[in-house]
Design a protein that fits this description.
The structure holds two protein chains of two kinds.
Chain A lengths: L1 H9 L3 H16 L5 E3 L10 H8 L5 E6 L6 H16 L5 E6 L3
Parallel strand pairs in A: 2-3
Helix pairs in contact in A: 1-2
Chain B lengths: L1 H13 L2 H19 L4 H4 L5 H19 L1 H9 L1 H6 L5 H20 L3 H10 L7 H26 L5 H23 L8 H8 L1 H9 L2 E3 H23 L2
Helix pairs in contact in B: 1-7, 2-4, 2-7, 4-7, 4-9, 4-10, 7-9, 9-10, 9-12, 9-13, 10-11
The chains are: A alpha+beta, B mainly alpha.
Chain lengths: 102, 239
């Protein structure tokens, strides 16, 4: 460990090695899904009951979000992130679409 | 090392630069969050989200001002030679400088706890979500720790404090916002844009500031901190 550090600090190619180690370490860490939800109402944790309910589904779900047209920037943000979720949901039995009048 | 740490702190507070940095941070925050139009109280919800969105931008300007002198001034005045002849390793020299600067930043952040207390006292029954607020403060602390490390690194690049300030400002902006902005450029393939955004601080700060503590974010912040320590060591070693 000490040798590696010394090499990084003193050798010409040390920066490259340091960057490599940085991305390697973070690549490994990105596989872990350990998380701590600090919010009081556990806003970012899916409840076990919800898990069970989702497991018991047989048909695909269709979600229509009515968010089309001219909005203030906050809602526009919501509309764009919904549109993003639309493209992310391909692996799930889920169909999200933006509805409403232009 | 602790002697150097104490010397750094006393230097920040005897030359007023530390006090002014803290005062500017608190005044700007106080004005935007409680006095100007569209402030926290108009918002109607007991949440400090606005504070945690605004603070990184103020810190972006203040931390370079705090850290710009740490090595650059030593190089310019030649006191670096004296410091180098002390029985301290390069690690100790750098950590002393780093912790001294970080102390000033933390002192600036501490009084903002009053905002949280104020919102709690003003709000209706359930009040502030203290868990989420704690997470947000943790995020802000990690952010300032990384910003300070970047600032120290930039200070070790040159003997000119203004150059150190400007480079620090630029590299912090690139790390905080730049990678996020690049990932939004149309034409960058999906997948690649995710990893570009991942490299930036904002990506990890956002989940922390909502009160969600992820192991991968902790690893990101600590390894980025360590990376800039190593870069700094490389620079001061050849001086």
């Amino acid at each position: 460990m000490k040798k590696v550090l010394h090499w990084i600090v003193s050798h010409r190619m040390g920066i490259a090695l340091a960057l490599l180690l940085f991305f390697l370490l973070n690549g490994i860490a990105s596989f872990s899904d350990w998380r701590l939800d600090l919010t009081e109402e556990k806003r970012y944790t899916i409840d076990t009951a919800t898990h069970q309910q989702l497991k018991d589904l047989t048909d695909p779900i269709e979600v229509v979000v009515f968010l089309k047209g001219e909005f203030p920037s906050g809602f526009k943000k919501l509309a764009t992130s919904t549109a993003k979720a639309e493209s992310l949901a391909f692996s799930l039995p889920l169909c999200i679409s933006l509805g409403g009048s232009e | 090392m602790w002697a150097l740490y104490r010397k750094e702190i006393s230097q920040y507070f005897s030359s007023l630069s530390g006090i002014i940095a803290i005062a500017v941070f608190l005044v700007v925050n106080g004005l935007v969050l409680f006095v100007f139009e569209d402030n926290l109280l108009d918002f109607g919800y007991a949440t400090l989200d606005r504070f945690f969105e605004l603070s990184p931008w103020i810190l972006l300007l203040l931390i370079p001002a705090i850290t710009m002198r740490s090595f650059a001034e030593e190089f310019r005045t030649g006191t670096w030679e004296v410091l180098r002849s002390q029985p301290l390793t390069l690690w100790q020299l750098m950590l002393g400088k780093y912790l001294g600067a970080l102390f000033v930043v933390v002192i600036a952040l501490l009084p903002t706890f009053f905002y949280a207390l104020l919102l709690q006292l003003l709000s209706a029954d359930p009040g502030l979500d203290w868990g989420a607020t704690f997470g947000s403060y943790l995020g802000l602390f990690f952010l300032s720790a990384v910003f300070t490390a970047i600032g120290i690194w930039c200070s070790s690049l040159s003997a000119n404090t203004i150059v150190a300030f400007l480079i620090a400002l630029l590299s912090m902006a690139v790390f905080y916002y730049g990678f996020h902005a690049i990932s939004l450029i149309p034409g960058i393939p999906t997948g690649v844009d995710y990893w570009i955004e991942w490299t930036g601080i904002d990506f990890h700060y956002r989940s922390l500031s909502r009160g969600l503590l992820l192991l991968s974010d902790l690893v990101y912040f600590s390894s980025l901190l360590f990376l800039f320590f190593l870069f700094t060591l490389r620079n001061i070693r050849v001086r």
